[in-house]
Amino acid sequence: MADRELPTDETAHLIASDKVEGTAVYNPAGEKLGSVHNFMVNKISGKVEYAVMSFGGFLGIGESYHPLPWDVLTYDTTQNGYVVDLDKETLEKGPTYKRGSEPQYTRSYASTIHGYYGVPFV
User: Fold this and answer.
1) CA–CA separation, 103 vs 50, rounded Å?
2) Are 52 and 96 in contact (CB under 8 A)?
3) Residue 106 phi/psi, 5° resolution?
């Protein structure tokens, strides 16, 4: 076993955060919607609560950011990306912000995000 190198950034069930950032996000039809910009982790529970998806723009200019409840994303190994059951129009109308105007992730804001995507917020 000393000769075999163990992976340090990905296993069958775990992945390092820097490998998640930049991962493509698709709808069920296989249309690319954007990519994971970052994700928000609950400091107390240690669980990921939101994936912040970047959408639109070119080379970082004009991008909008869409926080999605983590539970709406499913990893698809055939696409090497996440799939959400959303179309571009639904995404565009959802909670969003631009670089430099990041929201405060308060309970009220969380409730808005979860409500829009129909995910229970506790």
Assistant:
1) 13
2) no
3) -85, 170
Around Cβ 25, how many Cβ atoms within 10 Å?
A: 24
10: its two tokens: 């990905």
Domains of the chain and CATH, by start: 17-109 (2.30.30.240)
Query: pTM of the prediction?
Result: 0.82
**Residues 84-108: tens digit of each pLDDT:** 998 888 888 999 998 889 999 899 9
- What does the alpha-carbon distance between residue 54 and residue 98 come to, in Å, rounded to a whole number? 10
Q: What is the mean pLDDT of the chain?
A: 86
Structure tokens at 92: 């565009």
Six token digits for residue 71 = 């539970």
CA–CA distance, 69 with 72 (Å, rounded to integer)? 6
Phi, psi of 69 (to 5 degrees): -55, 130
As given in the structure block, the two tokens for residue 72 are 């709406």
